Protein 1
Amino acid sequence: MDIGFIGLGSMGSAMVRSLLRAGHSVVVYNRSANKAEAMREFGATVAREVCDACRGDAVITMLSDDTAVEQIVCGDHGVLGCVAPNKTVHISMSTISPALVRRLAERHAELNQNFFSAPVLGRPDVAEQGKLFALVAGDQDLIDWMKPVFDALAQKTFVIGDQPPAANVVKLSCNAMIGSMLETLGEVFALVVKSGLVDPKAFVDVLLSTILATPTYRPYAQHLLDHELKPGFRIPLALKDMELALGAAKEINVPMPIISLIRDHLIEAIAIGYGELDWSALSLVAQREAGLPG
Amino acid sequence: MDIGFIGLGSMGSAMVRSLLRAGHSVVVYNRSANKAEAMREFGATVAREVCDACRGDAVITMLSDDTAVEQIVCGDHGVLGCVAPNKTVHISMSTISPALVRRLAERHAELNQNFFSAPVLGRPDVAEQGKLFALVAGDQDLIDWMKPVFDALAQKTFVIGDQPPAANVVKLSCNAMIGSMLETLGEVFALVVKSGLVDPKAFVDVLLSTILATPTYRPYAQHLLDHELKPGFRIPLALKDMELALGAAKEINVPMPIISLIRDHLIEAIAIGYGELDWSALSLVAQREAGLPG
Amino acid sequence: MDIGFIGLGSMGSAMVRSLLRAGHSVVVYNRSANKAEAMREFGATVAREVCDACRGDAVITMLSDDTAVEQIVCGDHGVLGCVAPNKTVHISMSTISPALVRRLAERHAELNQNFFSAPVLGRPDVAEQGKLFALVAGDQDLIDWMKPVFDALAQKTFVIGDQPPAANVVKLSCNAMIGSMLETLGEVFALVVKSGLVDPKAFVDVLLSTILATPTYRPYAQHLLDHELKPGFRIPLALKDMELALGAAKEINVPMPIISLIRDHLIEAIAIGYGELDWSALSLVAQREAGLPG
Amino acid sequence: MDIGFIGLGSMGSAMVRSLLRAGHSVVVYNRSANKAEAMREFGATVAREVCDACRGDAVITMLSDDTAVEQIVCGDHGVLGCVAPNKTVHISMSTISPALVRRLAERHAELNQNFFSAPVLGRPDVAEQGKLFALVAGDQDLIDWMKPVFDALAQKTFVIGDQPPAANVVKLSCNAMIGSMLETLGEVFALVVKSGLVDPKAFVDVLLSTILATPTYRPYAQHLLDHELKPGFRIPLALKDMELALGAAKEINVPMPIISLIRDHLIEAIAIGYGELDWSALSLVAQREAGLPG
């Protein structure tokens, strides 16, 4: 298919390569042009303007936050002003607020433009292999039409509902659940380590082989054993996602005390100098609060 | 092997049947004698006194809490007064405090009695199939000697350390992690349901097929879809375990805010009339706090 | 003095009356004109446009939130476009974010306009008596010049610092402390009531006569005894303030778990139907979580 | 009156001096005898045995915790075995669990012994001046009879109810409320300091002169300004009281999330080396979590 792709961070760049490898033709746009230029060697065409990326079968936006989407989609010369009615589908893959997705859906609908939401689960290395999980919500016909796109990007595609914000509610929920796993792992690991009794490797073995086993724990537990946090999902981005989840929950009056607690600990992580680390640095916060070297 | 077994709750009874099925000979003791009598038909011998169950290769205690263990093990005519030095191994499988296990280890050591700790993960149906996970800590030679016992009870045995309380630290940690998963699932499910946008089945599908997938979620997610909490691990027992974890952590000055939060919600669950339900009723607390019917 | 006053909610209207009573001449502006008209009978002049209120010695803005201030101060034909350089002082008395106050200060400075921040503590009945507490931050000469204004409005004026946002940091801190008092009072009252042992009047007597005694408790404790929450500071406004405090703290990486907890409980209060009540309805949340009728 | 006094910590010793100064005759007992001997110079008689302090009009117990009371009151040769029926009143002034007070009341009643509970609010310097607040619960006739004792010790005596544990519920509630004030003050002070904008003295002035003003804040706010925590109520004792409050609340199924949070932070305080400080060191925990020097 002919696909435009806007937003070439580490996730976006990996996704573009997966699309190209699957035989799609891709026109890329990025605010800092050098990241777009770097995609040429993989076979992408570079767009000068947002509109140049909005003329194919679909244009995917994969941007860092609500502000970036507001600017690139709703701003002057933005996606909303570019896509032709009843033609190019705008697929919003960014992790943004359900409220913004609702507004995008309304604006696109007013303009008879095609739109649905499809945030993804997985890190850049998974995106590189086309093995993401896609959370999709919107018009089923449009989703069906775009099946080749998701075949290239994701190992599995979940249709969450027919209203686009639904996908973002689930995406934020998933991140909150991962955050809770990291927070809990951190607290428990502090207990296990400070007890001085437990072989940490045996503990991790329990974690990975029993009813607790989850793919989420696998890399993080290893990091704890290695005393080494790999760069991954940086704390400020994780904090942004926790605030998006809290905001979405507040909109409909749902208290989420676990996420409030994780938010507080992410802020503490930044305060004490871990702001550049992967958010599994929540374990360092737990260790520091337990008086361990951290 | 010749095994004594003290404590015939739903877990203990299922474990006795697994031992019998594996060809061991088992002498059972229970404070309410009728539960012991019920084991006769499966081939167990019934002991009149604690001491009658303390004369084989091993005596296993599988009791409900610290108080029961204090009474049956440390009390008059208790296990400590019965087992012969350097002979019968006392294996403590109860979910009790590391502090009590430390005291048991010291008392047994003073009397030259064999002892180690081996709490288990898994519910009665898993115990019935001999598919528990055993968390074992103590003298390696004793543990090796008792391998046939664990082969009968557990699908996997983890050696956690050489000091008995270590196993209980890990057991309590595992329960805390499960509690956190249930609490988080409950909060997130309240968000998903109250949004009115998300197909709950699709959400559960995401939960069970992605990096979040864990065996722990499987039955609980189904309960949420069915609006039906199966009897399982009753809330007061779960609360006991959270308090044991908090107590063990406090002993070594480790704050565990996630577990404090779960403790508060379990108390709320009892306060509002869910005290007889499985502890996944944490989801009902979350729904009630979100103003959902609950 | 000649004073413009913008924002005639229950607080603003009471403050205008205090200014008039003290002999100041006041030009009022409000977006819904009827509230401005109602001030005529007390001696105020009604402005048609924002600019009509910006020509005296000072213009006070007393608006409900950041959005209102953005519109009335920064918007087209707003305060920033009206006040003459080095003349009329804009005094921002609204409870708004320190970040917005910082931006206002910068914009006013660029235009050589006089500006400082002066949020107030106290409810409408206190404003009516001119007995507020004023928290003031900015240029000392301007503050000194405006002394007659504060003499009319406040029983005491605190100079918090020389940078305007400082006053808002303190204002939000004070509200957070009041929130914490209400939350704690609610939780403790639930304990006291549910114990069934304590004479609630004796408990309130302890509260109001010992080292716990604070003017904050006086009205609220009475409400608890009367089972009657008087209308006062509505929960959605309280929630707004807690979020402003959390936002201001997050900006400089300060975790505030107590405020997170209050925020969660205010959301719960709205979720369960108490959204129109005074924020001391936090006690109803506590009672409900304790299984009391609530 | 003739009064026995058991428990001569810093509070007990000060109270004995107040009783002596008021003209009462006092027989003192303490487990470590040197503290009892030190009371001779103020006019007290020293008892060799608990029973020697149980023969007057009243015997007051002022002990550190439940364990000490269990031993001194319920143990061999303890108060329960010493006081004559319908004669000497046992007044329990210790901060202990309502559950233990209930048991004491039952045991005393079975033996036809006079008993009521009267924990106090205030620190040693206040006890020295006879200016405590007494929280009293039990039989009104006994309480009336003991009026001279309370006149010597307290500036005000509150009758909380007719069942002794009621007084301890209120005492624990008061300590929880003070704890919450300290925690909140600590969090807010971290915000104020880290903002770099606010004059801390001005902030404390606001705290002590407005609707927030409470005697509790006065010394603590000064400590914050002085960067100096005076020895006072040590953290492990504060933690004990928070756990007593949580335990009393759990007994009747009342969740108290604020106290859970304070408990976690007191544990953190001990973990990071502040275990010997006054519990206002909660502010140091808040500062440390905010990345301030702490």
Protein 2
Amino acid sequence: MVAWKNLDTLTAFENLKALKNKVDIKVAMAGENGAKRVNEYKVPMAEGMSFNYAAKQVDDEVLAVLADLAKEAELVAKYKELCNGAIINTGENRRVLHQLARKQQGDAVVVDGVDKRAFYVEQQKKAADFANKVHAGEIANEKGEPFTTVVQIGIGGSDLGPRALYIALENWARVNGTLKMNAKFISNVDPDDASAVLATTDLAHALFIVVSKSGTTLETLTNEQFVRDALVKADLDPSKHMIAVTSETSPMAKSTAFMQAIFMDDFIGGRYSVSSAVGGVVLSLAFGPEVFARILNGAAASDDLANNESIFENPSMLDALIGVYERNVQGYPETAVLPYSQALSRFPAHLQQADMESNGKSVNRFGEPVDYVTGPIIFGEPGTNGQHSFYQLLHQGTDIVPMQFIGFKENQMGKDVVIEDSTSQKKLCANVAAQIVAFACGKDDENKNKSFKGGRPSSIIIGDQLTPESLGALLAHFENKIMFQGFLWNVNSFDQEGVQLGKLLAKKVLAHDTEGALKVYSDLLEI
Amino acid sequence: MVAWKNLDTLTAFENLKALKNKVDIKVAMAGENGAKRVNEYKVPMAEGMSFNYAAKQVDDEVLAVLADLAKEAELVAKYKELCNGAIINTGENRRVLHQLARKQQGDAVVVDGVDKRAFYVEQQKKAADFANKVHAGEIANEKGEPFTTVVQIGIGGSDLGPRALYIALENWARVNGTLKMNAKFISNVDPDDASAVLATTDLAHALFIVVSKSGTTLETLTNEQFVRDALVKADLDPSKHMIAVTSETSPMAKSTAFMQAIFMDDFIGGRYSVSSAVGGVVLSLAFGPEVFARILNGAAASDDLANNESIFENPSMLDALIGVYERNVQGYPETAVLPYSQALSRFPAHLQQADMESNGKSVNRFGEPVDYVTGPIIFGEPGTNGQHSFYQLLHQGTDIVPMQFIGFKENQMGKDVVIEDSTSQKKLCANVAAQIVAFACGKDDENKNKSFKGGRPSSIIIGDQLTPESLGALLAHFENKIMFQGFLWNVNSFDQEGVQLGKLLAKKVLAHDTEGALKVYSDLLEI
């Protein structure tokens, strides 16, 4: 049995605190020593990618203590317990099985007589069969015409992850001949969200996926009804245009209002659900089931690496440890995620949810307040766009913000242009390389306004190309990083009690059952 | 003459520091006192909007010191100097005239014999004439067919602001019959950005705006060439599909490669340029010149309020002062911008640039290092989406993140659905009201995992509907907030030297003129 201990009770953490400001990366990254670091401080990732942490504030001594910390916190053993079906989500008394949707990592996990791996595979097969029939025209609209657009109705994890992955592969699929259907998303309870999507959608050829685990998510039910009304108004039969992704026990599961229901369960939380039917149905429809399977394979390859005890063979664990050093020793409250790939434009928003919702906690997994800071603020936009925007603060602001770059050697669509003797792709890569060094090393100038202090830490994940496999590997890398950080902070990364109070008060407002400040706000907003 | 002094030399700031943690909003916002605060702690904004700061950690005593600080820092006098054409951008020895593009606020500003207000109006007229001719079919493609899509090629300020505003009004324009052309944007040097846009654009009916003040922005020139190649390949004449927005002295100004050039100048920085031709041309083409004029009118109305000496009649100044209290006294490093409006989905990204690029500085306007923190990290996503994502951390994380909500009583598109006795719009408004109170007041629970500490400060801007006028007023409110904060921190909010080093190093990489770490990163990325 592993021992669940608070971070500040671990000897290795005490040793780590003694190493605050140990490494001046402005010095360490200069000259030949810098070159040596970039060559040596890298760890292979899944799918041919590499995690390079040369520009992080670590050296061999810090790394040795991080390795001690990993061992003392039993990070890999905890991951193995998770894979074996332990009740890791203590608050909700649930297993945590998103990795199982990708591959059988550990022992069979049987719940109420159901083998969960078999269950996930069965749902994938149902999604694949459905998608194949839609693509073949066997499942078609009232007139027997093919569906051309799929619209996912869901919010939070049912929106951000699937949307980020769709955008990440839409253009790759377009040039690789696997863009089977366009995908769109409706999430916000703001009625303009649904209105806007419907205003530009050919309803007669659109298939809608309603995604809600409980079948009671208010935003999603509302948007479902909004769409139903629009279908009826267009003389279309909603039950021939809608499928459900829900749990087997939800009211949506057996409803005749849907063509079919494909199932998820309580053991994969919303922000991890892109590997479940929540991502599987829409991505199989958009790109074909084979592409979705390739995403899962890439993710499973990252999950495999998370089993390695050595920090130098376990990139998500190393990434997690460095992050905790930055957060709890160096005292940096944010992390910027900066992919140099337009296709990853919404990937930071997905990670923002995955990370902040998982580790934005003040109590440990036993419900006791912790005496240290936990999950950081996550934000980011793609480069080079960000360079012309908020990078000014990252370079010359008064705060230090650790950065996580992502770059690929090749673009997805294969078209390029040569200007000033280099392609756009080379310019893109040159910029990310330049930024890492500029942030780390800075530059002195007599004019202090043109001076760069440097000392701003970053890592980079380098891949060959953003493909279904590398995208899946990236997704799982970050999921596992978050998991390992949750283990270190001893929090439950898999519940989200912080969303409840707002829901409760919103219901009171709608019932006009309010007083005090809430009543006045309600009046001001004319609710 | 005003005196430019560092924040920590001001007496009022010393007094403010003594008021750290003065107000416990969990207490202040409870019961009838809370109701009283919500009723009283609000200031009218332009265009019928209202800035409500009841849930901020202020009381009459804090507000009195903030008023002292405004006076001692001569905030309004500095704004008036700016409007009168003073060299506020000291680093680049430039005036700051984005407000002048909206209205003559102060004295005539004449530079090299040119009245700048007349210059901006002339460019607006050129943009309007051009747009009207395009809409009337007088300016058409090679076959005399109308242009239906406009594509803006630009990065940073030439992208984020215009894009955010286009998205903000696209659906409003659709239902109001003023969506004249679809607008798209190409920004990133990643060649997949241009490829993806072109793959879904009918080139024969597309008009491209190339936006670069200097005419030398590498990303933009590269994307321009990318588009030119595509037009030629489609047997189209690029010079009949492209116009330029640039400065009069740039190589693009007189080039025959463009149908026309419309001008900007050095006195409106990129992140403030949405009011100039940078925003004017694309928005006039998309929505018609009248709509763009309405945006400017709304902005001018906010600018008018910035002249008021009283903090209770100057919402952007009050917002700025509270932000400095939170940043420099309370010690919060971030601000979340949370619009409850799907149409404002990219408005936080624009503000992220506007704020972080303006005030992410470590030296004052004289180039001397400051001993206090300056601009915060800005991030945000629309609600209710964010509630199902990163709000968990905002509610229950270990750090406090001040929040800036925005809400409207009515939606833009007029369609809605009633579920459980309320419309989606009411649900949207109920949620934002509920969140403010949940964040401020929290809720105790025996189960600490379900406990909410409260004490998390927020403000809300409430408007009737997101229209061209209210959007312009919002834009200018935040621009002026940033300006006032820059005055308080005594930084130059209008240069961006922090972007230079990366550019320089990227050029070295592309020239293969590197050594040390930079060379190894270049090799790893196969540049």
